[in-house]
Each structure stands twice: as structure tokens, then as C-alpha cells.
Amino acid sequence: MLANKISQQLGRPTQSLLGWIVKKFLTRHNQVMEVNAVRLCGIQPDDTVLEVGFGPGLGLEAAASHLTDPRGKLFGVDYSEFMYKLASERVQGLITSGKATLHQASVDAMPLSDSSVDKVFHCNCYYFWPDLRAGAAEMHRVMKPGALMVVTLRTEQVAWAASKNLIPVENWRPESYMDALRATGFTDIQMEGNMDKNITFQAIFATASK
User: Fold this and answer.
1) Options 3.40.50.150, 3.40.30.10, 1.10.3720.10, 3.40.190.10; CATH of 2-208
2) Using one digit for the tens of pLDDT, what is the confidence trace for 54-99?
């Protein structure tokens, strides 16, 4: 019962005691992966960038620091009303200035235009999607031809969480996600190991087909 409640909060945190604990966990444990997802994207000053599943907003802040050109824009999509509220507070200045726009929405129904995004990144979230192919197809829709997507995760931690039923066991394997990317038009799909601050993590790269 408790594992199921934690799994629900990890996938869609609510404004509750467990949701607050999940927020503290994400803020502490996702920092390195968020920053590295942004770094590996190679964001240019005038890019249009999307983070899927932005959580408390750490990756949004990191990405915004690279968007120094007035044409640079930042979008974020997260299913959780609680995370949307927290992230909106964190990047309120960016929202007010028009640099950032956040949406509370599902990855498979994003309110973004076709072929509008240069870079996409997400961290520790695809295994909570109800349909990997639907989410991948929607990301492909909003990405410009040749646009890059980067995903960061720690496979050992994710495998452990799946073994404890803390995350859905069906979709966590990177191979399943990479298969969904291939099936929805992504190319140049690869996974590589990385290390930062003595933390080992994996990064998945994929390019939207031209």
C-alpha cells in the first residue's frame, strides 16, 4: 500500500505530506542529472527549449541561464499541479519577462506548436508515462527536424525502485523507451554512461527525423 502511494506521488506529486517529501527528494537527488541534461543538450542562446516533467524547476533554471539571446525561449510541461505551482514560483521572473512559459499538461497532449522546439530534455520521468509511444510521438511532433532530445537517469537506482514497486515496472528499462523513440520517428538513438560529482548516470540521445 505504501509503495503504491509513493509510486503515485513520484509520478504525479500532490500538495500533501508525501508530495512534499517527494519534492525534497527530487530537489536533492535530481540536481546533477538536471544540470547535465541541460549541458548535454548544447543549448544555444537563441534556442527554443522544452523540459518535459520539470518537477520543482531545477532544470528550467539551468536551461534559462543558456538562453541569453532575446529570441531564446523556454517551455516546460508537467502533469502535476503541485510541481507546476512550485516551479512557477521558482522561475516567476522568467515567466513575467516572457522568457519562460510553463504548462500543466500531459506529455502526450502538449499545448505547443508543431516543429517549434530546438532542444528537449527530461530527467527521471519517462517510466511514469502511461504510453511510451504516445509520449514519444508527441515530443517528435513539437520538435523541429534535426532537433536533439536528451534524457538523463541512473539505471541502477531506477532498477532498484522498480524492484520495490516504487515506479511502474513495465516502462522503466531504457531499451523500452529507446524502442518507443525508434517507432515514432527518432533517429541516432544511443545511450552513454557519464559521471559528475562522483555520481554515475546514463544519458539517452535522440534526434527528430528530418
Assistant:
1) 3.40.50.150
2) 988 999 999 999 999 999 999 999 998 988 998 999 999 999 999 9
Q: How far apart are CA 177 and CA 188, in angstroms?
A: 14
The residues near 98 (Cβ < 8 Å, ≥ 6 apart) are: none
Give the separation between CA 24 and CA 127, rounded to whole angstroms. Answer: 20
What backbone phi and psi angles, to 5 degrees, belong to 116?
-115, -10
Report which secondary-structure segment, H or E, holds 110. Answer: none
Q: What is the pTM of this model?
A: 0.88
All structural domains of the chain with their residue ranges = 2-208
Are 118 and 48 in contact by the 8 Å Cβ rule? The answer is yes
Instruction: List phi, psi (to 5°) of 50.
Output: -125, 130
